[in-house]
Amino acid sequence: MRTNLSVEEALEAVLEAAQGELSVEELPLKEAFGRVLAEDLASLVDHPDQDDTAIDGYACRAEDTLGASPEAPVRLRVIGEAPAGRPFPGEVGKGEAVAVYTGAPIPKGADAVVRVEDTRREGEEVLLFAPASPKDIRPKGDDLRRGEVYLRRGDLLTPGRLGLAAAMGHPRLRVFRRPRVGILSTGDEVVEPGEPLPFGGVYNSNAYSLLGLVLEAGGEPVLLGKVPDDPEAVLARLGEAGPLDLLLTSGGVSMGEYDVVRKVLERHGEVVFWKVRQQPGGPLLFARLGGLPVLGLPGNPVSSMVTFFLYGRPFLFRLLKRTEPPYGRLRARALTPFKGAKGRKVFRRGVLSVAEKTVRSTGNQSSGVLRSMAFGNALVVLPPDQDAREGEEVEVIPLTFVP
Ligand code: AMP
Ligand code: MG
């Protein structure tokens, strides 16, 4: 077992375990939002499939309209119309025009369009107050070219990408199965909300913040409830879990007599590492139980969320072959001081303004104060042994799940 790892070493060890191939399922478009593509997607069509008009107006020959102006309008004969989806069957000759509507193919013979705002219709004729121009013609394939790959395996299906898949002509998409992530809370003092809280008890908040984090990272949470600090109870509950791709436990990984998760994994699994030089989240444990990777998250509500975000989220991204990184980094000016820690990398909670490039503390930074994760939208990263003074530039990791 390794111990006292740096954050980077710990992340590497966790990612090394994200080996499995997730199976693939095929979903109709309407069910694929938020899923991750399992294959490259090429367009089945050109779009537009021929030159079309980007505006409502009249398609004609540019040379017929040279010099048209309000003082010297040009008069053309209207020989028909082409709404979107109904191409004009004939050809535009000299001195002729076809009324066209956005998305309609440019009729044969025409090479320019004049905006309807620059015209006046007079029966079978139209007066043009400006020359027709080719700039509002969208050339064939301007948006999509048949056979070209626009979406790739590992791309998250965002609203724009879901629309793009539809525009390319795909009714169904092959996506990765969502990784099943077990969530087990441990602790004699932990009680489900809705039950009366005994003296010294604490409501099980970790299960629900982790559920949200797992969903947000593209996983399928499997709530395994809570167990007391008893090895037999932990083992029994895990036995009922069904197949999982990752197990999250919360609590029971510190130094104490009652730190049951650590004991169970030491005895029945293989502990890959225990303890990382970071704060919060120092007691983090990573193990394998049979083939199952287990992230033993510390019980403090902030610690469990921060460690999932820093290690669990990248693990799921790797399994899902996500093309985007699990989190970004930027630099911002500290509006408040942030306190570092001796020998540990520190992740303080902050309120980041992307527009101002500033970040301020959420206030009480205790690992037990969950409000910092509820209203903070960023982690302020401090290298070991370093405080940040007010006005100093600091590294910031935006929390993707806070608006
Ligand atoms: P532990 O890591 O088990 O030593 O727990 C550290 C702190 O986190 C203790 O104050 C626990 O009461 C608290 N805690 C543990 N599990 C949970 C949970 N599921 N929800 C909220 N707080 C918890
Ligand atoms: Mg405990």
Tell me what the structure shows.
Helix content is 18%, strand content 31%. The strands form seven sheets. A seven-stranded mixed sheet has the order 1-19-21-22-18-14-17, sandwiched between helices. The chain has a six-stranded mixed sheet with strand order 8-5-7-6-10-9, with no helix packed on it. The chain is elongated, with a radius of gyration of 30 Å. The protein contains seven helices and 27 strands. Strand 21 (285-289) and strand 22 form a beta hairpin. It has helices at residues 7-16, 159-167, 206-216, 231-239, 260-268, 301-319, 371-375, and strands at 2-5, 24-28, 41-42, 52-53, 57-60, 74-82, 96-100, 112-115, 119-122, 125-128, 137-138, 149-151, 172-176, 180-186, 190-191, 202-203, 220-227, 246-250, 270-276, 278-279, 285-289, 292-297, 330-334, 345-353, 358-361, 378-382, 393-398. The chain is an alpha/beta fold and 403 residues long. Helix 3 (206-216) packs parallel to helix 6. The protein binds adenosine monophosphate and magnesium ion. The site of adenosine monophosphate has 17 residues, from helix 3.
List keywords for this structure.
binds adenosine monophosphate; 7-stranded mixed β-sheet; binds magnesium ion; alpha/beta; 7 helices; elongated; single chain; about 400 residues
